[in-house]
Amino acid sequence: MGGGGEGGTVIDAVMVDPNAVVQQYNQQQQQQANAKLAEQQRKKKAEQQAAELRAKQAEEQERLKAAEEERIKAQQAAEAQKKQSEAAAAKAREEQKQAEEAAAKALAEKERILQEQAEARQKAEAQAKKEAEEAVKRKAADEAKAEAEAKAKAVAEAKVKAETEAKEKAEVEAKAKTEAKAKAKAAKQAQDVNDLLGGLTSNAPKQGGATAAGKGGGKKSGVSESDINNYKGQIQAAIQKNFRDPSLYIGRTCDLKIKLASDGLLIDIKAGAGDPALCRAALTAANLTKKMPRPPSKEIYEHFKDFTLDFKPQ
């Protein structure tokens, strides 16, 4: 702090207190230390605050993460529940659908079986009816054939018998004529001889005539009422043998117009007046009988070869 002289440098001398310098230095050091400590404390506090902030942030992040995980978990659970519910609903719908289809299928199957059974029953009934009708037709045809054959046989036999009888009758008649001619010739010759002898043998022709008259005048024996009733009873019994349920027709009658062969074979039979039901039953029984008892004599046959029987079931 001073000045100099002319042309020189002026130096001001200052007195320095070492204690003050030391004290000042110490103060500066203390200030620096305090500042450093304060800075350290500030940094530490800042670091603590930062650590606390980081911890809070980390905690918040953990909380948010946990919350997000819970949310995701809840969402997933909800979605899973939704899917499960949807799956259960779909399963229920499918089961319902299957049950309905099964029920419809079972109903259709039942209806099909019932239809098949009905068709089978109808088919069986139709077949049975057809077979029954065919059996009736076959039986009727067989009976008609048998009846026709029997009638044809009877007609043939009757024709043969008639021809034989006609032939025999013709032969008998021819023989009788021949014998008559011979007798007439012999009688004439005898008459001529008698005439020539003058009546010595005039009685011979009278005797011959008497003999001839005796033969020609013989009366044909008749048929007794007893014989007629007896044979009629045999025919009634023969038909009665094949007659069914006679008790149903008690009190009814039917006229049966019957034609017989000489051996009793039934040539033809028809119903005349009388109860229709009885007549049908009687015709059936007679056709089953086919052959009646043989007439005991030619006279009986002549009486019964074409007659009407008053049939009464017993």
UniProtKB/TrEMBL annotation:
Biased composition (Low complexity): 204-213
Comp. bias (Basic and acidic residues): 53-73, 80-168
Any single Gene Ontology cellular-component annotation: membrane
Gene Ontology terms, MF aspect: toxin transmembrane transporter activity
Pfam families assigned to the protein according to its UniProt record, in alphabetical order: TolA
GO terms of biological process kind: bacteriocin transport
InterPro entries xrefs: Tol-Pal_TolA
Annotated region described as Disordered, given as residue ranges: 33-168, 197-225
Identification of the protein by name: Required for outer membrane integrity, uptake of group A colicins, role in translocation of filamenous phage DNA to cytoplasm, role in surface expression of O-antigen
Origin species: Xenorhabdus nematophila (strain ATCC 19061 / DSM 3370 / CCUG 14189 / LMG 1036 / NCIMB 9965 / AN6)
This protein's encoding gene: tolA
